[in-house]
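Might I ask for a little of your time on a matter of protein folding? The record follows directly beneath this note:
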Amino acid sequence: MSSVRYEICEIDPGHYLKILKCHSDENVQIETVNKSLYIIIPGNPGIIDFYEHFAIDLNKKTNCPVIGISHTGHLYHDSIFSWKPKPVIGQIMDKIKFIEKHLGDEYKYENIILLGHSIGCYVIIELLELIGQEFNNKIKKSFLFFPTIERMSTTPNGKVLTFLSDFLSWLVYFLAFLLTFFPNKIRKQFIKFGLNNRHGSVNDDSILIDGIEDILLKMSQNYSCFKSCFYMGSNEMKIVTNLNKKVIEKNLDRLYFYYGLNDKWCPVDFYHEMKQYMSEIDRENANVYLDQLGLEHAFVIFKKQCEIISNLVQNNSA
């Protein structure tokens, strides 16, 4: 049976990560050396609580421990209320710091398998270039799901976020700050309306993860959390531009790209261009795939879609 707990890590003074740890009892026995340790690097918002169902399902299927690392400041906690946001490069360096300094505190493992989602894929690609050699050698594979790794500001959703951050950021921050003063009852109604409007159909593929309303409610109570998410998103539009071909070519044998068919953060054209790029460097057989199952960019909030992705990881981790 999978066990889940959360820990707060003060990665540097006044800046915090929230760590999800998911394992079975045998994963943490003193004499047990796990074949692999799976590490989730989230999208934005990088609230790691969204990834709990995915982590549990992956742990059950692989019988390996799963760790999720939030983005710095993308969290809520009863005893921490205020902090300053960090840009993308700060987020990358904090992941490296955590992996190098804190990863071996609890689990013994032979290999690391990285699981990136959305901007988490960009973090992984940069991490592969910057992390120390000792840990780089342990990274066996990196899965990049719905990867926002290039030209973010030119995508349909990127254009909207760029406009908001360039011209209306003051209004976005004001409304988010104002929302923190609303009673929980009213904020719950906003959340239910948003979820029903966006994901109102009821079928096996659209059943949302347990506790999603509570996660969103707690997010809406913390202005620093929202500010960290929006600040990082705005920075992504400026930082995520050209594809880092140098790192991709160097690490291609341990990269697995999975693009969405109708992804407004990473249009299908990016998939076709990646396939063309693979052809140009004579790597047509590289692991670059296009979803054919209708999965959403935000797959982690749907139970069935989490389970489909965890199956994919299990079947391709060798």
Summary: Strands lie at 3-12, 15-23, 34-41, 66-69, 109-117, 139-145, 255-259, 288-290.
